[in-house]
Automatic annotation (TrEMBL):
Residues 40-74 are annotated as: Disordered. Residues 60-74 have a biased composition (Basic and acidic residues). It comes from Streptomyces musisoli. This is Uncharacterized protein. Residues 40-50 have a biased composition (Acidic residues).
């Protein structure tokens, strides 16, 4: 399993989304990965899903982050 947050985020994405995000500048990828990690940490519903299926929780968080866009800052 990758330890780099961007790599972990890319793994959680669907193949089409992974390709699109991989084509973005590294800085934008890092912003998306940071938003993804915040989503995983802050959403109680994802905690429950994570207990059942960590990959499903990561994929759902990734979907939400892409749906919102990369403009989110902490």
């Amino acid at each position: 399993m990758p330890t780099d947050p961007v790599e972990r985020f890319l793994v959680a994405l669907s193949p089409d989304d992974r390709e699109a995000v991989a084509a973005k500048p590294r800085e934008e990828q890092e912003q998306l990965a940071a938003a993804w990690e915040r989503e995983l940490e802050s959403d109680d519903e994802l905690d429950t899903l994570d207990e059942l299926s960590p990959p499903a929780a990561e994929a759902e968080a990734a979907r939400r982050v892409l749906e919102r866009g990369s403009g989110e800052r902490p």
